[in-house]
Amino acid sequence: MINKIKYRILILLALACFTACQNDDNNAAANIDAMVAEPGDLLNQAFPLNKVRVEGQGLTGLKKITLDNKINISFNPNHNSDKAFIFTIPFDEKLGSRFGVQPITFETAAGSFTKEIEILQPNPTIVKTIPAIATPGFPLEIEDTWFYNISSVTLGGKALNYTLKSSSSIIIGLPADAVSGSELTITTPGGTAKRTIEFATLVLVSDFDGNGVRTSWNAYGDIDSFNANTTGGPTGNYAALTWSGSTANGYNGSSAGTGAGFLNASSKDATRTFIDMDVSANVTGAQFAIQLNTIDGKDYGYNFKVTDVNWTTKTISLADFKDNYGFGANTASTIDASKITEIKVGIVQSDTPNPSVIKFDNIKIRYQ
């Protein structure tokens, strides 16, 4: 009997010792040894949207993952074992995501563990430009990824001013003397994005300060006055044409005459051709008449009313011009843009205030 009691005591002691050892082993095993990012096998570092494999012991029963003490990370419990689990690094500005070293906390059945992980900033990549073909002197929007902490934006090695629209878009101011084929470079802590920028062909017709391919302007038809050297324009002198109701001729206008085509022979597409000019007037409702030289037997024009007497830049697509001086049914969308040799500016007499004084400056033709 005594021997049986001794034997039972020995068995109980052995079981107690085994259970205690198991508990000690479990407590010792509940640990995270490493966090490895895929792809790339970064150790305790990861880029946004990387998958991270956590390796260790006692990792079963994963309950929660918290990044930087504020961002809850979703995970698939089916990918959880005693020695590993996998999750994806999120990045959401609205939730406060940031780059750099930050705490990450794991709650498992064995307890809570906090480690440090470094979220790396990805290299920026330029997706597209708006418009696709840039114009010197005009703004250009750059759509990209990972526009954070920009240190510089350069074109052809020269620094540019820019406005950060969002983490995926910036607007840059292109210099008027920008050269087609220049390299745009955007630098961040994550790296550098580069793209060669192609520029539109921009021809200055006249700035009324003696510059451009047409500098000697005259007026015709039912005008009261015309001055191509009026002071006080947006960039110097401007042209002013006044009509006070005469209908003797039934038309009016101004022109610097014709000559060689503004665009080269290969620039034929009307849908890629634009006329830019600064415009103003003495009264809202004053109606401009923009006309071209006769092309293929047709007289194309574009008419528009001034809605703001302050100076503004008007951009007109050549494809929006119509025959019969702007009153026809046929558009100029299929004409050969290289045949444009003259741009005339006048007033639509049939639908405009009396008197009307139109003001215009910095006429350009642009192919992009």
Low-confidence regions:
1-28
Name the shape in a single word: elongated
Mean pLDDT: 91
* H and E order: HEEEEEEEEEEEEEEEEEEEEEEEEEEEE
Write up this protein.
The chain has 368 residues and is mainly beta. Helix content is 8%, strand content 43%. The chain has one helix at 2-29, and strands at 31-38, 42-43, 45-46, 51-57, 64-67, 71-72, 84-88, 100-108, 111-119, 125-130, 139-145, 152-155, 158-159, 162-166, 169-173, 182-188, 191-197, 201-206, 218-221, 225-230, 238-243, 252-255, 273-281, 287-292, 301-305, 312-317, 343-347, 356-367. The longest helix has 28 residues, at 2-29. The chain is elongated, with a radius of gyration of 36 Å.
Concise summary:
With 368 residues, the protein is mainly beta. It is built from 1 helix and 28 strands.
Main attributes of the structure:
single chain; 368 residues; mainly beta; 6-stranded antiparallel beta sheet; 5-stranded mixed beta sheet; 1 helix; 28 strands; disordered N terminus
In terms of topology, how is this protein built?
Layout: H1 2-29, E1 31-38, E2 42-43, E3 45-46, E4 51-57, E5 64-67, E6 71-72, E7 84-88, E8 100-108, E9 111-119, E10 125-130, E11 139-145, E12 152-155, E13 158-159, E14 162-166, E15 169-173, E16 182-188, E17 191-197, E18 201-206, E19 218-221, E20 225-230, E21 238-243, E22 252-255, E23 273-281, E24 287-292, E25 301-305, E26 312-317, E27 343-347, E28 356-367
Parallel strand pairs: 3-9
Antiparallel strand pairs: 1-2, 1-4, 4-7, 5-6, 5-8, 8-9, 10-11, 11-15, 12-13, 12-16, 14-15, 16-17, 18-28, 19-22, 20-21, 21-28, 23-26, 23-28, 24-25, 24-27
